[in-house]
Design a protein that fits this description.
alpha/beta; 4Fe-4S; single chain; 9 strands; 7-stranded mixed sheet; metal ion binding; iron; metal-binding; two-stranded antiparallel sheet
Length: about 180
Protein backbone atom coordinates (compact mmCIF):
# COMPACT_ATOMS: atom_id res chain seq x y z
CA UNK A 1 0.00 0.00 0.00
CA UNK A 2 1.08 3.53 -0.68
CA UNK A 3 0.08 6.71 1.08
CA UNK A 4 -0.05 10.29 -0.11
CA UNK A 5 0.36 12.18 3.15
CA UNK A 6 0.45 12.01 6.92
CA UNK A 7 -0.89 15.07 8.71
CA UNK A 8 0.02 15.72 12.32
CA UNK A 9 -2.18 17.99 14.42
CA UNK A 10 -5.08 17.80 11.94
CA UNK A 11 -8.29 19.43 13.21
CA UNK A 12 -10.43 18.98 10.08
CA UNK A 13 -10.93 15.21 9.81
CA UNK A 14 -12.52 14.19 13.08
CA UNK A 15 -12.90 15.53 16.58
CA UNK A 16 -10.03 17.12 18.45
CA UNK A 17 -6.43 17.08 17.27
CA UNK A 18 -5.65 14.04 15.13
CA UNK A 19 -3.01 12.26 13.12
CA UNK A 20 -4.39 11.66 9.63
CA UNK A 21 -3.22 9.08 7.11
CA UNK A 22 -4.19 9.61 3.46
CA UNK A 23 -3.90 6.21 1.76
CA UNK A 24 -3.55 5.78 -2.00
CA UNK A 25 -5.91 3.89 -4.27
CA UNK A 26 -9.61 4.33 -4.89
CA UNK A 27 -11.96 2.65 -7.35
CA UNK A 28 -14.91 4.94 -6.48
CA UNK A 29 -13.44 7.93 -8.35
CA UNK A 30 -16.17 10.32 -7.23
CA UNK A 31 -16.80 13.29 -9.51
CA UNK A 32 -15.57 16.40 -7.69
CA UNK A 33 -13.24 14.46 -5.38
CA UNK A 34 -10.92 16.85 -3.52
CA UNK A 35 -7.94 14.51 -3.94
CA UNK A 36 -8.17 12.73 -7.30
CA UNK A 37 -4.41 12.08 -7.27
CA UNK A 38 -5.06 9.53 -4.52
CA UNK A 39 -7.14 7.34 -6.85
CA UNK A 40 -3.86 5.89 -8.17
CA UNK A 41 -2.74 2.96 -6.01
CA UNK A 42 0.91 3.81 -6.73
CA UNK A 43 0.61 7.50 -5.75
CA UNK A 44 2.87 8.69 -2.95
CA UNK A 45 5.22 6.60 -0.87
CA UNK A 46 5.23 2.99 0.33
CA UNK A 47 3.61 2.41 3.72
CA UNK A 48 6.39 0.66 5.64
CA UNK A 49 7.07 -0.44 9.21
CA UNK A 50 8.99 2.83 9.59
CA UNK A 51 5.83 4.70 8.53
CA UNK A 52 3.81 2.76 11.10
CA UNK A 53 6.35 3.58 13.81
CA UNK A 54 6.27 7.26 12.83
CA UNK A 55 2.47 7.38 13.15
CA UNK A 56 2.51 5.54 16.46
CA UNK A 57 5.01 8.09 17.76
CA UNK A 58 2.88 10.98 16.49
CA UNK A 59 -0.13 9.51 18.34
CA UNK A 60 1.66 9.45 21.74
CA UNK A 61 1.10 13.01 23.05
CA UNK A 62 -1.92 13.45 25.33
CA UNK A 63 -3.25 16.30 23.17
CA UNK A 64 -3.65 13.94 20.18
CA UNK A 65 -7.21 12.59 20.23
CA UNK A 66 -6.71 9.84 17.68
CA UNK A 67 -6.07 8.58 14.19
CA UNK A 68 -8.07 9.26 11.03
CA UNK A 69 -7.87 7.14 7.87
CA UNK A 70 -8.89 8.58 4.53
CA UNK A 71 -7.61 8.71 1.05
CA UNK A 72 -7.91 7.42 -1.53
CA UNK A 73 -9.96 4.64 -0.01
CA UNK A 74 -8.98 2.82 3.21
CA UNK A 75 -11.50 0.06 2.47
CA UNK A 76 -10.10 -1.05 -0.87
CA UNK A 77 -9.23 -4.72 -0.12
CA UNK A 78 -5.51 -4.25 -0.81
CA UNK A 79 -5.47 -1.31 1.62
CA UNK A 80 -7.41 -3.22 4.27
CA UNK A 81 -4.82 -5.99 4.09
CA UNK A 82 -2.12 -3.51 5.15
CA UNK A 83 -4.19 -1.29 7.44
CA UNK A 84 -5.60 -4.09 9.59
CA UNK A 85 -2.23 -5.19 11.07
CA UNK A 86 -1.38 -1.51 11.60
CA UNK A 87 -4.69 -0.87 13.41
CA UNK A 88 -3.96 -3.89 15.60
CA UNK A 89 -0.69 -2.18 16.58
CA UNK A 90 -2.53 1.08 17.29
CA UNK A 91 -5.06 -0.71 19.53
CA UNK A 92 -2.28 -2.68 21.24
CA UNK A 93 -0.42 0.53 22.09
CA UNK A 94 -3.58 2.54 22.87
CA UNK A 95 -6.14 -0.04 24.09
CA UNK A 96 -8.57 2.51 25.54
CA UNK A 97 -10.74 3.48 22.57
CA UNK A 98 -11.87 6.63 24.35
CA UNK A 99 -8.31 7.94 24.76
CA UNK A 100 -7.29 7.49 21.09
CA UNK A 101 -10.27 7.17 18.78
CA UNK A 102 -10.03 5.90 15.22
CA UNK A 103 -12.07 7.57 12.51
CA UNK A 104 -12.24 6.39 8.91
CA UNK A 105 -13.71 7.97 5.82
CA UNK A 106 -14.97 5.72 3.04
CA UNK A 107 -16.77 6.19 -0.26
CA UNK A 108 -18.62 2.93 0.42
CA UNK A 109 -21.66 2.69 2.67
CA UNK A 110 -21.58 0.67 5.86
CA UNK A 111 -24.17 -1.61 4.27
CA UNK A 112 -21.83 -2.27 1.32
CA UNK A 113 -18.95 -3.01 3.68
CA UNK A 114 -21.09 -5.58 5.49
CA UNK A 115 -22.81 -7.20 2.47
CA UNK A 116 -21.35 -10.58 1.58
CA UNK A 117 -19.93 -10.71 -1.93
CA UNK A 118 -19.85 -6.94 -2.44
CA UNK A 119 -16.79 -4.91 -3.31
CA UNK A 120 -14.85 -4.01 -1.13
CA UNK A 121 -15.86 -6.54 1.55
CA UNK A 122 -13.10 -9.07 2.20
CA UNK A 123 -11.69 -11.20 5.01
CA UNK A 124 -10.30 -8.07 6.76
CA UNK A 125 -13.40 -5.87 6.76
CA UNK A 126 -15.20 -6.98 9.93
CA UNK A 127 -12.11 -6.80 12.13
CA UNK A 128 -11.14 -3.45 10.67
CA UNK A 129 -14.63 -2.05 11.32
CA UNK A 130 -14.45 -3.39 14.90
CA UNK A 131 -11.43 -1.17 15.59
CA UNK A 132 -13.01 2.02 14.22
CA UNK A 133 -15.03 4.34 16.47
CA UNK A 134 -16.52 6.63 13.81
CA UNK A 135 -17.12 5.91 10.12
CA UNK A 136 -17.92 8.65 7.62
CA UNK A 137 -19.52 6.66 4.83
CA UNK A 138 -20.88 7.07 1.33
CA UNK A 139 -19.53 8.44 -1.92
CA UNK A 140 -19.08 12.15 -2.45
CA UNK A 141 -21.95 13.26 -4.73
CA UNK A 142 -21.27 16.55 -6.51
CA UNK A 143 -25.00 17.35 -6.84
CA UNK A 144 -25.41 16.99 -3.06
CA UNK A 145 -22.32 19.00 -2.11
CA UNK A 146 -22.84 21.08 1.01
CA UNK A 147 -19.85 22.91 2.48
CA UNK A 148 -21.68 23.60 5.75
CA UNK A 149 -21.72 19.92 6.77
CA UNK A 150 -19.38 18.82 9.53
CA UNK A 151 -16.85 16.13 8.53
CA UNK A 152 -18.50 15.35 5.20
CA UNK A 153 -18.82 16.92 1.78
CA UNK A 154 -22.21 15.85 0.48
CA UNK A 155 -25.62 15.39 2.06
CA UNK A 156 -25.82 11.65 1.31
CA UNK A 157 -22.80 10.91 3.48
CA UNK A 158 -23.25 9.85 7.10
CA UNK A 159 -21.11 10.21 10.21
CA UNK A 160 -21.77 6.92 12.02
CA UNK A 161 -20.88 6.28 15.64
CA UNK A 162 -19.77 2.66 15.23
CA UNK A 163 -19.42 2.06 18.97
CA UNK A 164 -23.06 3.04 19.57
CA UNK A 165 -24.12 1.23 16.38
CA UNK A 166 -22.62 -2.01 17.67
CA UNK A 167 -24.41 -1.53 21.02
CA UNK A 168 -27.78 -0.66 19.43
CA UNK A 169 -27.70 -3.19 16.61
CA UNK A 170 -28.77 -0.47 14.19
CA UNK A 171 -27.07 2.59 12.72
CA UNK A 172 -26.52 5.41 15.19
CA UNK A 173 -25.38 8.70 13.73
CA UNK A 174 -22.78 10.89 15.38
CA UNK A 175 -23.55 14.59 15.48
CA UNK A 176 -21.47 17.16 17.38
CA UNK A 177 -20.82 14.56 20.04
CA UNK A 178 -24.54 13.81 20.36
CA UNK A 179 -25.80 10.60 18.81
CA UNK A 180 -29.10 10.25 17.02
CA UNK A 181 -30.83 6.96 16.24
CA UNK A 182 -31.64 6.47 12.59
Amino acid sequence: MNYGEIKNCDIANGTGVRVTLFVSGCTNRCEGCFQPQTWDFSYGQPFTSETENQILELLEPDYIDGLTLLGGEPFEPENQQVLLPFLRRVREKFPDKSSKSIWSFTGFTLEELKREGSHPRCEYTDEMLAMINVLVDGPFVQEKKNISLQFRGSENQRVIDLDKTREAGSIVLWSDGIVENR
